[in-house]
Amino acid sequence: MAEINEKSLEHLLSLARIEEADPKRREKLLKDLSKILDYFNELNEVNTQDVEPLSGGTFLSDIIRNDKEKYRNADEHKKQRDISINQFPKKENDYLKIPPVFTDQ
């Protein structure tokens, strides 16, 4: 079993700002912490010499397409813009007019 005693338990409880006066619960905490530390000691014995560290759970990466210019020149862009604006039902100057989103009620 790992070395944890009443003094170290008291220190851990004070760091966590936990007050535990029940002796049965303190005894259970000591046993549980001891088991946890034993498990970590067991993990320390595992040979990880040839194991590369992981930075995540997968080696997949995002596939993102490169943006391409849709229009070859400014005239073509303006023509497509005008077509789109003319399809909108309400316009005011160079703005598209939409119904109000928020109303005073």
Structural description of this entry:
The N and C termini lie far apart (70 Å). The mean pLDDT is 85. This protein has a domain at 6-44: Histone, subunit A (Orthogonal Bundle), CATH 1.10.20. Strands 1-2 form a two-stranded antiparallel sheet. It has helices spanning 6-15, 23-44, 74-87, and strands at 91-92, 95-96. By secondary structure, it is mainly alpha-helical. 44% of the residues lie in helices and 4% in strands.
Instruction: Tell me the CATH topology of the domain at 6-44.
Output: Histone, subunit A
General shape:
elongated
Name given to the CATH architecture of the domain at 6-44: Orthogonal Bundle
Class inferred from helices and paired strands: mainly alpha
Number of helices: 3
Beta-strand content bin: under 5%
SSE series: HHHEE
Termini gap: 70 Å
Rg over CA atoms, rounded to whole Å, is 34 Å
Question: What top-tier CATH class of the domain at 6-44 fits best?
Answer: Mainly Alpha
Low-confidence stretches: none
Give helix % range: 40-55%
Total strands: 2
Largest sheet: 2 strands, antiparallel
In round numbers, the mean pLDDT is 85
Q: Which strand order does the major sheet show?
A: 1-2
